[in-house]
Amino acid sequence: xxxxxxxxxxxxxxxxxxxxxxxxxxxxxxxxxxxxxxxxxxxxxxxxxxxxxxxxxxxxxxxxxxxxxxxxxxxxxxxxxxxxxxxxxxxxxxxxxxxxxxxxxxxxxxxxxxxxxxxxxxxxxxxxxxxxxxxxxxxxxxxxxxxxxxxxxxxxxxxxxxxxxxxxxxxxxxxxxxxxxxxxxxxxxxxxxxxx
Amino acid sequence: xxxxxxxxxxxxxxxxxxxxxxxxxxxxxxxxxxxxxxxxxxxxxxxxxxxxxxxxxxxxxxxxxxxxxxxxxxxxxxxxxxxxxxxxxxxxxxxxxxxxxxxxxxxxxxxxxxxxxxxxxxxxxxxxxxxxxxxxxxxxxxxxxxxxxxxxxxxxxxxxxxxxxxxxxxxxxxxxxxxxxxxxxxxxxxxxxxxx
Amino acid sequence: xxxxxxxxxxxxxxxxxxxxxxxxxxxxxxxxxxxxxxxxxxxxxxxxxxxxxxxxxxxxxxxxxxxxxxxxxxxxxxxxxxxxxxxxxxxxxxxxxxxxxxxxxxxxxxxxxxxxxxxxxxxxxxxxxxxxxxxxxxxxxxxxxxxxxxxxxxxxxxxxxxxxxxxxxxxxxxxxxxxxxxxxxxxxxxxxxxxx
Amino acid sequence: xxxxxxxxxxxxxxxxxxxxxxxxxxxxxxxxxxxxxxxxxxxxxxxxxxxxxxxxxxxxxxxxxxxxxxxxxxxxxxxxxxxxxxxxxxxxxxxxxxxxxxxxxxxxxxxxxxxxxxxxxxxxxxxxxxxxxxxxxxxxxxxxxxxxxxxxxxxxxxxxxxxxxxxxxxxxxxxxxxxxxxxxxxxxxxxxxxxx
DNA sequence: GATGAATGAGAATTCATTCAT
DNA sequence: TATGAATGAATTCTCATTCAT
Lengths: 196, 196, 196, 196
Fold this sequence. Notes:
Four copies of one chain form a homotetramer. The first copy, chain A, is mainly alpha-helical. Chain A has helices spanning 2-32, 35-40, 46-52, 56-81, 85-103, 122-127, 131-140, 149-170, 174-192.
């Protein structure tokens, strides 16, 4: 029982560090974030950090791994099951925007670069690693015309990043953002024109 | 004449710092970049940095100002003269990709986050400040349908960032990148399908 | 118990810094003293200084506060209880010279200005802040004739500083210094003439 | 003629540095004063400083020498000619207070230690070097009773320093200060009581 | 000589990491 | 294991001094 309690606490501490690190990386980026920033956002003491992670790099990697193991597979499955380009796009953008909303990336920094969403964030790096592969497979299945998959996945990633920032600023939900991005990729600005 | 030589050297040193700072910011981002990194990328001594700039923030601002004073006005003019959405898009994307090519953003860092183009870079922040205003004006002129300009400019920025990274990796020129992005915004994936 | 030991060590380190700072300020004065000088006079590492004080100014202030809270009240009480001018003077000078002896201000520097007692020392600034007020009160009680209290307190301070330096050089105790200063203020050079 | 002009300029520059250095030393003390502070208080360029003085120490020494060669001899002569203790004291204090007034030591610093007159100033160090010797001679001549000359000269120096600060704050001339100090040394607080 | 930019040693400060408790 | 103070290397910045013009 004591062991159980301990295990629980251990797990909770590790989780607390991961949550704090996500917030701090989103806020400051990997480069500017310090271990102190992370631990300050936690009820723990500085030394405790090193009971769970060897370094800042390791937390970064751990977040990346976590995302890669939980969110990415779900997303890959949805994409694999997509019957149309629209489903593929809506699933991809929808998952990303919902993830961003869930993270509640409250940007509060006053640094000059903080005016835009941080890309040097573990989730983001992990999250889009699989996109191109999925896109290639979708092209092979005939969901998409034969477009350069590097450029297309890059464009999707860019739209996702920037639109998500707008979404947070505006406080709107994930749905409008998803619909906008999906329509843009399906039909360009014509498809975005208001009906009528 | 003596003064002339001195002025020249002075100007050259300032320029050397600016060039080095651009490279370092592109490499590491604002947060992770250090003044030492900048000065190390220069033949100058450490103290010399402070003859020209008070801090890292100040170089950042100086680059931003320079970009805002040189590139942005040209871009704004081209956009103002655009007769069609295609011209507007091609001018915007073309200018950005050519700028990126000119900067030769040789990504060489080994830090985990460096795998993607840095957005917290002075040029980028400055460069897209004016886009939304130009877009609103273009919508008013009837070049674009009545699309949410926040979302649309965000999408353009995102595509520009990410495509430019691909462009650099692939070593292709600015033209293919510009054409891809323009076509995407004009007609979506259908417009991107290879002819035939 | 664990906490007790830690607290002790913490307190000891803070004390070590304060002691070293006193010595360094006495040696070099506030202006020339560096944080490095202080920490070098200590077995601690450079970063440890900043666990206790934010800056040189803050140690200075801390010493001043300490003096103001311990020595000054005792001195004020003795002065308030003085029944004669002689008691007032002897208490003031006696306290100061004893304080200086206790500090063991071993002047050892080789800088040109170090040949005289440093006045820009936190103890000294704090110590004489209250003198004039006490003097005014003593004049009101009739202990002193109606002398300009600004000049009189200034003169007392000056004599205290300079005599204390002589005292240290000569290695004599506080008593002769106190007697000399008291006699000087009571009756001038006549009162200082050796008996007979 | 050209040579004459140059000589003049040379002399003027040297003088400008000396004047500026006096002010800066009085303001900040030797330790905190920087060569930049001195040169900033001058119309000259930084490099020019080193055409006249090898270092900060050397200006300090130069001021000391100048004082020792001009003011001290006059003072020594006056003291040697003094027929009474009062003349000796009045000459000593009078000379010092007039010197301080002439220097116009406008204290304007905001540093914690700046609230009192700087003693680590070349003039002060030089000026009181000769006092004790003169005092010993005066005792030998019978002007003063047989008082410990170390203590007595220290007391005179201290009173001179501190009273001069009061004098400057109050904006009164040198005469009241001289009279106060002289009376104090002649007869103590009794001699300072207002007549009647 | 005069100038003022360049230099680089050194001072102030931060921060990842260690370690005694 | 948790703690948080200590550590010292790395960073930012200052300043005496040099040197090309």
